[in-house]
Design goal:
The protein starts with a helix and ends with a helix. The protein has 11 helices and no strands. It is mainly α and about 180 residues long.
Length: about 180
């Protein structure tokens, strides 16, 4: 009703788009978000939301376009770089994906996720040696990330390096005895 009474109420459109997202009505949310972007409303991370919707719909080129617009507005955002890396990876442009993911610093809460995403991409390229090196580096920098140990032991098992896999699992169990 509010939008019928005031079709230019950007706050109402933003709030309604968020409700649509929660209700999984992505096409309706996307329509409102694109309308807000056209009207010059960029302060609420609209392009990031648009990119995430396109990513979920597997429209990776459109997601990348939205994330790149968002990165221009927030050039220091590691979150947007992570999204770009993931979208490029899903699209199959692995080198570009890795270039974005590798920009995530150790201090970022997204560091572990970025490393694991890079490992996944290296495995897709059958570059297990690079994946192993990346995980070993990740363990040195962030030794409390259990998923690094699990991924590394999986790679060692795949390469039939069973004693290395066992050592990594033993180290993980000593660090995370309740897991």
């Amino acid at each position: 009703r509010l939008l019928r009474a005031d079709p230019y109420n950007d706050n109402a459109k933003w709030n309604l788009s968020q409700i649509y997202i929660q209700q999984r009505k992505m096409d309706q949310a996307l329509e409102l978000l694109k309308e807000l972007r056209k009207r010059g409303e960029n302060g609420k991370g609209i392009d990031v939301k648009i990119g995430l919707i396109y990513f979920e719909q597997k429209k990776f080129d459109k997601a990348i376009g939205a994330f790149e617009r968002a990165l221009k507005m927030q050039p220091k955002s590691y979150r947007i770089r992570y999204y770009l890396g993931t979208a490029y990876g899903e699209k199959g442009d692995i080198d570009k994906a890795i270039s974005f993911l590798s920009q995530i610093p150790v201090s970022s809460p997204l560091y572990a996720r970025a490393i694991l995403q890079e490992v996944y991409l290296f495995k897709r390229q059958q570059k297990e040696t690079k994946a192993v090196g990346l995980l070993e580096e990740g363990i040195k920098k962030k030794p409390h990330v259990a998923d690094f140990y699990l991924a590394l032991s999986e790679l060692f098992r795949k390469e039939k390096r069973y004693s290395d896999a066992k050592e990594v699992i033993s180290r993980a169990l000593s660090l995370f005895p309740k897991n």
